[in-house]
Amino acid sequence: xxxxxxxxxxxxxxxxxxxxxxxxxxxxxxxxxxxxxxxxxxxxxxxxxxxxxxxxxxxxxxxxxxxxxxxxxxxxxxxxxxxxxxxxxxxxxxxxxxxxxxxxxxxxxxxxxxxxxxxxxxxxxxxxxxxxxxxxxxxxxxxxxxxxxxxxxxxxxxxxxxxxxxxxxxxxxxxxxxxxxxxxxxxxxxxxxxxxxxxxxxxxxxxxxxxxxxxxxxxxxxxxxxxxxxxxxxxxxxxxxxxxxxxxxxxxxxxxxxxxxxxxxxxxxxxxxxxxxxxxxxxxxxxxxxxxxxxxxxxxxxxxxxxxxxxx
Length: 312
Fold this sequence. Notes:
mainly alpha; Leucine-rich Repeat Variant; 2 domains; 0% strand; globular
């Protein structure tokens, strides 16, 4: 448990020249674990501080603010979302975070950004609005999950941009893996429904469902945002059978950096020696966010190795 006195010290570490990007990520997640209003205030300050030049770090701060679901972050997230000079990946994460914290006050802002010239931003804001509409239909809070849905919620402790299909509520929840895969790959269906199919497959969490998501990652031609989310989900599933697909996504230099970055971090979550060998090849990539992500992913892989040693 992070004590209140530790929060200020953690924030100070973000600005130490000797602190590498991987360590900064650890600091950010420690502030998330603190969970206090003060931690939110400091994370918002870090996101607004021009001293922090790393897109990876700023995007992670925005992600964490969304996961904390504290409305005190709304003003900062809106500020970064609407700034056209901000990096696309950071703007995307701010839009998603507004959906995560159910920031109904930001509705008009999100609606305006659905006309943004940057596709990843407008798609994110459309998804955030869909999530807000879904939450409103749930009377402002998620229904009590039943059966396997509740069990899976204990495994993936994240606030997702779209909910999985719910048992006893959505007919799609009883669909076969193959049928959900068809929905996932259907580029004529809304991103929100495709995301719901993706998170349902994630929650089933088998090699088979992971490979279905892997296939969607490589086959999709409609949306970098969708492909980045597929890579993120594969990182949550941590299945070695996905390594080949993730490596292919990382190797595509013409791919959007948000997809390559997420593929790198997912490879780190796989955590095998083979995964580390792949990451080492891209630690000097021309794209800053990709090479920083590889370094962070190697740090993640090292953590997984320690856990595996402790729990053989």
